[in-house]
Amino acid sequence: MDKRWNILTADELKTQALQTELKIHPVLCKILVQRGIGTFEQSRNFFRPSLNDLHSPWLMKDMEKAVDRVVRAVQENEKILVFGDYDVDGTTAVASMFLFLQKIHHNLDFYIPHRYREGYGISKAGIDFAKENGFTLIIALDCGIKSADLIAYAKELDIDFIICDHHLPDKILPPALAILNPKQPDCNYPYKELCGCGVGFKLMCALEEKLNLPIGSAMQDLDLLATAIAADIVPVSGENRILAFHGLKKANENPNKGIKALTKLSGLVKELHITNLVFMIAPRVNAAGRMDDASKAVRMFIAKTEDEAMNYAEMLHSDNSDRKEADSSITEEALALIQENKEWINRKSTVVFKSHWHKGVVGIVASRLIEHYYRPTIVLTRSGDYAAGSARSVPGFNLYEAIHACREHLLGYGGHFAAAGMTLELGQVDAFREKFEEVVANSIDPKMLIPEIVIDAEIKLDDIRQPFFNILCQMEPFGPENLRPVFITRNVTDTGWSKIVKEDHLKFSVKQNNVTISGIGFNMADKYPLLQEKKPVDIVYKIDENEWQDKKSLQIRVIDVRPASQRL
Question: Residues 227, 230, 232, CA angle at the centre, nearest 5°?
């Protein structure tokens, strides 16, 4: 699949001014300017994130109401139920809040709705559980902002709700006692991109102040918050960067027992980075809700002993193995289905359906299909008497609007710009597929159907030195709005040592002038003939460190390569 190369630019005067102040490689200054860092002070805050720079929790709308209600519940020994979603953000938020409240209150339990029996967010079953068991206060984390009817139902049962959510509110807000959500139009909280666990953290910070708890009481599970930030793909900027930085520090120095157990099962022996949280920890936590019951993820995080945490971690590890098997076999079936239906291959969208596919992995399968056919994709399966599924988009295309335009064929739908879910009658699948294709074909910019590689800067192979790499590492943690830098080097040639490894991958060995570097290009074996021509090529890559037999060396992870004559 050909890709578009988009090389970013930066204000030259700002870059020069920053280089004068920092005295580091001008390319690094260019990248900082691209990311909104233009002064010495901004650079210091970026490279040395400080917990002292977090905003006061009291700036958040309804914080006083929320704190006063929790304090009253503690003073009067009311039963408090900590309620959260079944994904990583929800389960880490529930575990963090539960561990924090446990220090000051014992009349406490938690509740995670079952993905298939109860669905996403606040559930009637959860509220009924609270009523039957005498809970008078529910703290909802990573959900609740769209549950107006259910929270009204809880109010009728004399159950108060505090909502800690980060999803976009509707015009009609639920009748909760307090709503903590910086995305509310009239909330003055300066940072709007907290995840659900982050909003819960701000409530804990305010409670720490109000109750004069030991300083740092709210910070004791920052590694769980860093996991939520990584998994929920929120911007790693502002407060999220500070929290992720210090959360990673905690994960490496004194991890939560659940994180420690999952790290061990993942086979990781080196230092934890954000990528480990995203690709090793998060999938195992998410697998619990996808394949079974996510409450065991919370039990793992709140475990009192390492043995107990490992017991639950092994269950999650097993769920993840089942999830991988299901997503692999369903992806194969879905690709075969597209190949069988020749008229689908050149479409602008993909909609596939099989009644036996596992509902918990259809979203992952949609993402896998986009790797093969780069276009808005929906994967449907049977759910009871209906078809239900998940949709994923390509960058820039508003998936939610496209699905909204097909609403005549749907029973229900929800989501946002990049991902959505829907339910429909089984007999409507074909009609929905045709309507969705019509909507996408008429509205998508053809450029969006070609994957884009965003390149930060052009460098020479000679620039790839240890001091340069060390500063790159200090730009971590990486994530949205602060992605790992991508470089381009032009006019390099094969040294003669490049080769295909493990059938699919390409081991690179290239030179420019008298400088040689090696690297790997995953799933790039098809580019080998291009290197064999011994003609100059342009390569796009990230810089990595390779460790072999206790020796470290810099290498490149190649993303794309094309003939040097083929200019942008």
Answer: 100
- For the chain, what is the mean pLDDT? 94
d(CA 530, CA 536): 9
Domain ranges in the chain with CATH number 3.10.310.30: 341-449
- Compare 536 and 118 and report the one with higher pLDDT: 536
CA 493 to chain CA mean position, Å: 37
Encode 151-210 in three state secondary structure: HHHHHHCCCEEEEECCCCCCCCCCCCCEEECCCCCCCCCCCCCCCHHHHHHHHHHHHHHH
Residue 109: pLDDT over 80: yes
Nearest to 226 by CA among 206, 208, 251: 251
What stretch(es) of the chain map to CATH 3.90.1640.30? 57-318
pLDDT at 432 over 70: yes
Closest CA to 167 of 179, 154, 176: 179
Q: What is the pLDDT of residue 115?
A: 83
* Confidence (pLDDT) at 566: 66
Closest alpha carbon to 204 in 223, 189, 214, 217: 217
Which CATH class name applies to 4-8+453-563?
mainly beta
Q: Which amino acid is residue 514, in one-letter code?
A: N
- CATH number (1.10.3720.10, 3.40.50.1370, 3.60.20.10, 3.10.310.30) of 341-449 reads 3.10.310.30
Q: What Å distances lie between residue 395 and 370, 387, 398, CA to CA?
A: 11, 26, 8
> Which residue is it, tokens 């979603």?
85
